[in-house]
Amino acid sequence: MFPGATGWARRGVVGGLLLLVVVAGCDGITRPGHGVLPPLDPDLVAAGKEIFRMDTYGNEVFWTDTARIHEVIEELVSPAVALEVGLKVDVEALPRALVEALAAGEVDLNDPESTLALLKHDAVVGVRGVVERFEGRDTLVRVGITCAFCHSVVDDSFAPGIGRRLDGWATRT
pTM of the full predicted structure? Predict the structure, then answer.
């Protein structure tokens, strides 16, 4: 079916194709010998979207406890750096006031504190961060990666790397 593909690669291709169908929410799909499939259950589509976008499958243990990436992000990764290395920001996840401040140039995109604000709103596509307040300061305490990290992009409608999320697209940056 997929020449040269190993078991995991084959499952990844099949899973990706299934994800494309579920995320797109297509109705009226015709399968040979089965006729037209019934419309997808909107509750199941919503649940799948939530899992795809938000579930880390517990990988915070690696990213936080082993790799300690949260320390690097908190101290060194500004939104400008994150965008430069290919991360994306879902503008629709941000509160209106923050979007307006970004548009007005009132948010310092070179300050790692701004990255914490984006993570608090689950706006960094594919990255789940737990930000807690300690001694009057936001602190990144956990980081995990979701499916969307590799399989979602944004439409750049706000700025390069910032826009409305497009799930199911391969990240190439």
Answer: 0.76
